[in-house]
Amino acid sequence: MADSPSLVPLPPSMFTRATGVVGEVPPDAASARHEWVLIVDDDAEVLGSMTMLVELAGNGAKPRVRVATSGHEGIRLLEALPFRLIISDYHMDEMDGVEFLLRAQRLVPGIPCILMSGDSGAAEDRLRSSEVENVAFLAKPFDTAFLLGLVGRAMGWPEAAA
What we know:
Elements: E1 14-17, E2 20-24, H1 27-32, E3 36-40, H2 44-57, E4 64-68, H3 71-80, E5 83-89, H4 97-107, E6 113-117, H5 120-128, E7 135-139, H6 144-155
Parallel strand pairs: 3-4, 3-5, 5-6, 6-7
Antiparallel strand pairs: 1-2
Helix pairs in contact: 2-6, 3-4
C-alpha cells in the first residue's frame, strides 16, 4: 500500500489539469447548469456508494445523480441532461475513463471532472498525456472527506461548517 493517496489537490473554486492549474470554473457556466452529477463506473457497488457520498456532499443542496455503467452510456446521458460534474472510474471495458472524459469535454467544454483509479500510476500517466482539463485525480482507496470537498467545490456549494 502506498504511503499516501496520489491526489491532485484543488484550491477552493479551482480545478486542475493533471499537469497544473488551468483556471477557475467560470461562475456563469457553473450556475447555468443544474445540480446534476454523472457518475460512471462499471462496478454497481461503487456506483451505489458514490451516489450516497455525492448526496451527502450536497449538504442540503439535493444533487440529482445519474449513473452509467460504461463510457458509452455516460456519453448518451451527457447528450440528454445538463450535468455540472462528472465522476468517472479509469478502468472500464470498451472505453477507459480518460477517453470518456475527453469525449465528455467535447460535448460539455469546461465541465469539472474527477477521475478515480486503483491503479494510480497508469491512470495518472495516461491523464497527464491527455488533453483532459478541469480534472482532479483521486487514487483508490481515497479519503471520503476529501472527495466530499472536491464535489462541493465543483458544484459551487458553500463549505460545510467544521
